[in-house]
Each structure stands twice: as C-alpha cells, then as structure tokens.
Write a structure and sequence with these properties.
homodimer; alpha+beta; Alpha-Beta Plaits; four-stranded antiparallel sheet; globular; SCO4226 (chains A, B); SCO4226-like (chains A, B); SCO4226 family nickel-binding protein (chains A, B)
C-alpha cells in the first residue's frame, strides 16, 4: 500500500462544510478501490485542497476523486515522510 | 496561530535521509519565528515536498524555510481540515 498527496485547484470560497461533504463523498466509495482518504486541508482563498491518502495506485486515487465529483490529475506518491 | 501547507519543487531524487536533515534544519531555528513544522511528505520522483506547519504568518514560514536552505514561495494558509 502506497501513500499519496493529491492537490485540487479552483476551490475558491469553498466552506469547511463543503470540504467535509466532499471528504464524505470520497469515504463512501473509497473501499471500492482499496483507497483510504485520511485527511484533507483547504485554503479557500487560493482555492487549493490537499488530500492525504493510502491506496494501491495513483489511478485508484484519481478514480475515487472523479466518481466523488472532484477529479484531479495532480497526485503525488509520497515515499518518505517525517 | 494559523496552519499552513507549503510546497517545494525540484527535489528530484532526494532521499529520506535528506528529507529528515532538511526537516531538522527547520526545527533548529523555527522557534525564532514562532513556527512549528509538524510533518513533511516527499515524492522524490516528481521532486515535490509538502510541509504542514503552524505559525503566525506565511512570511514567517517562508523566512524559516529560506534560512534553513530550502526556500519556497508556495505557502497556503489552510483554514479548514478534515
């Protein structure tokens, strides 16, 4: 199982409630791909969201995000952390 | 105290040991600015590092990273998280 950080752009003005809803939409279906979205951080001024997850591949992360309604192609496999 | 996610680019081929050293360099001086770097994640293939921190301002984060030898201007204030 690998770990990933993915980045969404264009989320300007998104509220904490909308972030929570988007995260819930991921959680509902993530099991289909063996993915788990652990945490997400929102900067509503810059419109950025960062999601930390585990899963079998970048493609699995992308498929869940796309099906949940917030696709991104910017997914990084993070192989080291402190 | 605000929370931030910052992004470094160009760290291609960086090792886990080098990531740990860079993080240690931040930790040594972060107190000067009231900053704390909590975690960092590395994708050595894409050359990206993501750092999660707390501090008084984006500028404080940038000053510590610059003094520690790895400047970035890509700092996001994350005001919501799940």
């Amino acid at each position: 199982m690998a770990r990933f950080m993915d980045v969404h752009s264009g989320f300007i003005g998104v509220t904490p409630e909308q972030l929570a809803e988007a995260h819930e939409a991921d959680l509902k279906i993530e099991g289909d791909e063996g993915v788990h979205f652990e945490r997400a951080w929102l900067d509503p001024e810059a419109g950025k969201v960062f999601c930390l997850s585990t899963g079998p591949s970048k493609e699995a992360i992308m498929r869940i995000h796309e099906r949940a309604g917030h696709p991104t192609t910017e997914v990084y496999e993070v192989t080291a952390e402190v």
